[in-house]
Amino acid sequence: MKRDLGNMITSLTAIAPQTIGAVSTATAASVATGVGIDRLGYESLVFSFINSQPAGVPLASTLTCVIEDSADNTTFATVTGASAVHNVTNTYSITEISIPDATKINRYVRAKATVLFASGSACMTTVGAIGILGSPVKFPV
To answer: What domains does the chain contain, in order, with CATH numbers?
Structure first.
């Protein structure tokens, strides 16, 4: 059997594209939380977060991307070492967070993106994320 990339991964919408940040201030962040993804049968994963250039007049902003896990698909906590923070600038950005050995985390995972505009006016950005499950226990997927 040929093991091409399509037989080794499954891609899922982790956070549907959405605009966040309109109420974000230095003390109040805006959050986009994805749905739980069942990674049963897969031993690695990557989340690719994307954000648009911000609208409005942001003077300082950050986007925090994290992967959370859960044993029951209800109560989630941030996976240690599975986060990234970057400035939201006047460009599009992609942030990838990889967990090469997902056998050490809980069965359900989800993506979470938090934007914080420290100053400016009418600030917002569009965020989204794709979850990619890899290293399947059984081929093909």
So the answer is: 19-134 (2.60.120.200)
